[in-house]
Every structure is written in structure tokens, then in C-alpha cells.
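quick one
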Amino acid sequence: MEYNIEPTNRYLGIYKAKLRTAEEIAEYIEDDFVCACPTCMGEPKAIVHAIGERARRDEIRNVQHHSVISPGGGDYLDPELAGKYYHVSWFTSAASRAGVQEGRFDYMPAHYSQIPWLWREKVSKLDVFYATVSPMDKHGFFSFGLVAAETLAQLERAKYVFLEVNDQVPRVMGTHVVHISQVTAVCEASYPMPTLEELPLSENSKRMGAMIAEMIPNGATIQFGIGEVPNAVGKLLLEKKDLGIHTEMFTDSMVDLIEAGAVTNMKKNIDVGKTVAAFCWGSQRMYDFLDDNRSVELHGVDYVNDPYVIGKLDNFVSINAGLEIDLLGQVCSESIGSRNYSGTGGQLDFVRGSAISKGGKSFIAMNSTAKGGTISKIKPILTPGAAVTTTKNDIDNVVTEYGIARLRGKTAGQRAKALIEIAHPKFRDELLFEARKMNLMI
Ligand code: COA
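structure w/ coenzyme A:
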């Protein structure tokens, strides 16, 4: 293991005394233990695998693995380990979706801003916090690298703290550090961080991205959510000036904006000169950019996603995606009918924060249709079982490839009309007919 900075002998001694193999750490696990790790890149692969092997040998039962986004490949996802070592998802990802939808895994409904509070005060117990970290510095601290988010709350609550020291974890600046004195045991491993493949943008996404980009003034502070349209907007802001970034997820397009000089963070009312995020997920190029980069800071989601913190930033613009919307403006972004698809994440946190921000606005973008154009995503009522992510009282701007419906401050009838105008033309008559039946068109 090579250290960026050679730790002093004092901390190296403590480190060596706490050094175990992943298999030795797995021996701490008992039946009914609740284990948790930070989202996605924070998962300690070697420890998780060693626990999986114990479950395979029938040595442990009913051990839960809690995390926000599962990066995939973890033993707790294995259907053969159901009831022995299994997942509880706090934001369903491609890797965990089948298990959640088939009822093998449970899931936690939550606003991301509240997840640290849930871990600190509401969840019944947390036995083990495990995470991957960058190598120890000379003061005895490890960085949680690409993830701050819920990390410190889990660390504070857990009975046992196990770290997997990985020399491929970039050292990203921020509050997300842990000291060797807080740790039960460490092991060492070396593997690259999971990356997110950038997919080509569809024509619809480019069109929606262009409409939104036009409404972002110079000096605005931006947040991009998950999905194609937020990515498309990022690519169209390269000519803007003095943008700021305050976002849950740091994305590749934000690296481009910083390198192009479009982002300076100098017009921010707080965190002046700094890009602020809760976690990062993207390409290896992004991870190299973040390593030891003092212009980017990660903080807990209880700070980054707090609507009152977001609201302190003038001209805040939030861009997220949705799966369907009804004629009142209730948005479902996390389920397909009653089948859980993803999670609430920080969507409502940022919609609410931008409503508090002076000059702020939020956008929820979606294609007008799904399933090869056979169904409209704008519906008279949501599909039975659909979870409401952004409520009718919070929604601001809705975007499809046919335009932008500005819903805030509009009556039910005005909303129905504005949404029908941006629905796919082939569904507009049917939507109008249903809206009349619902007495929405005065
Ligand atoms: N009915 C049925 N199926 C639908 C549908 C609908 N109304 N809308 C979408 N789908 C299907 C799509 O066809 C696609 O299926 P496929 O994977 O088989 O191609 C799938 O659902 C995903 O839809 P898509 O529009 O491609 O999703 P996306 O990758 O752009 O992500 C969200 C959109 C809404 C799922 C994602 O942004 C999300 O999870 N948001 C909630 C959390 C959030 O906003 N956080 C923000 C802070 S980071």
C-alpha cells in the first residue's frame, strides 16, 4: 500500500494494531445484525464478499445490508442468500430493482435530506458501519472519497466501524473524514471506483435541455438530478458566466462547466468560490479531477439537500426528471404504478429549496410518451399505486419535448390546460375529454 502522505509512526502503529483481513472482519457479524454503508462508491467490496461467504456457509442468518444506491455485484443481492444476507434499498438502482420488485429486498421511503436524521434518531438500530476509504493521512484521518451524503450519521450510530482502505479512492475535500481512533478494524484492498457510463443523448433530451438552458441566467446556482435531460442541460451551459454548483450528485457535465470557466461559484451567497455536492458518480476522468481538488467540497445531505440551505442561494435552478404527471401537477418519479423503480432521492428537497431561493426555479422534465410512444406520461390521474414524489403544491415548471408548462400559481383548470398543451399531440383530445369529465375545464 502506498500512502499519499506518510503517516507519523504514532498513527501508523494504531493502524497496524487494527489491521485485519476482510475475512477476519466478517467474523464480527452475528445473526440479525443491521449493517450499512455509504451510497454506491462507498461500498467495501472485500468485506461484503467475506460476509457473503459466511452466509453461503450458513454461519449467519437475517443480516441486512442497507445502502442508498447499490453499485451491483454485492453478495447481499444474490437470490441464494435470501434470508441470510440481503439488501434493504434506500434508493433502488438497476442492480437492486429486480430484488425489490420481486419482494426479496425491502426498501425505505425517504427524502434524501432526512436520511442522516433517520439514521441518527429513527432507525431502530445499526450494528455495523462499513465503508471504503482512501489511505490514512499523517494525522490519522481517512477520507470517504466520493461520498459524504449519509456517511457521518451512519458512522456515529454504529456499534462497530470497519474500513476498507483502498488506494484507488480519490481524496475529495470536505467534512467526510474519519479518524483511526473511531475505527474498530481496517482491512486493505485495491480496486477502481464504479463508473457511470455516459449514454448518447436523444433528440428529445437535447430539445428539452435547450429550452431549460435558455431559462438559466448568468450567475445562477444549479443542481442536476439523475437522467438524460439534466445531462443535456449541462452540455448547453458552457457559454454561461459565473454559474455556481450546489448539487446532491456531482456529474461529468459539471467537470466540463468548471473547466470551461462557466462555473466560478463567485456569485453564491454561501460557500463562495466552492462547488458543493453530497456525492459524485461519473467517469474515471471525473474522479481524477476531484482528487485533492480544493475547489470542490462534499458535505452531508442534511446540509446540501436542506431546502433552507438551498434557499439561501439566489437564482437557484434545479433540474430533475419524472416518470409521469397528472393534470393537477402531481409527479411520480420513483415507481411504475405500484412497482418501486428508484426513490425520492433529493427531488423534493431541491424543488422546495428553489422555491425559497430569491429568483429560484425548478424544472421536472420527461418525454411526453413512454413505451415506444404508446402511452402518455401526462395522465388525467396517476397510475394506481404510483408514489407522488413532487406534490401539486410544490411543482413549478414541467418540461416535455413540446414545451414548458409553468404550473406554480396556476389553478387546477389552468394547470390541466398548460399540461395538455405540452402532451404528445396524439393524446391531447383524450386528455381534454378526461379533464372535462373531471370538471377541470371551466
Ligand atoms: N410508464 C411506464 N414506463 C415508464 C414510464 C411510464 N410513465 N416512464 C418511463 N418508463 C420507463 C421507460 O420506458 C424506461 O424503461 P426502460 O429502462 O425499459 O427503457 C424506464 O421507465 C426509465 O425511464 P427514463 O425516462 O429513461 O428514466 P431516466 O433514466 O431518465 O430517469 C427517473 C428518470 C425519474 C427514474 C430518475 O430521474 C429518478 O429516479 N428520479 C427520482 C429521484 C430524483 O429526481 N433525484 C434527484 C436528485 S439527484
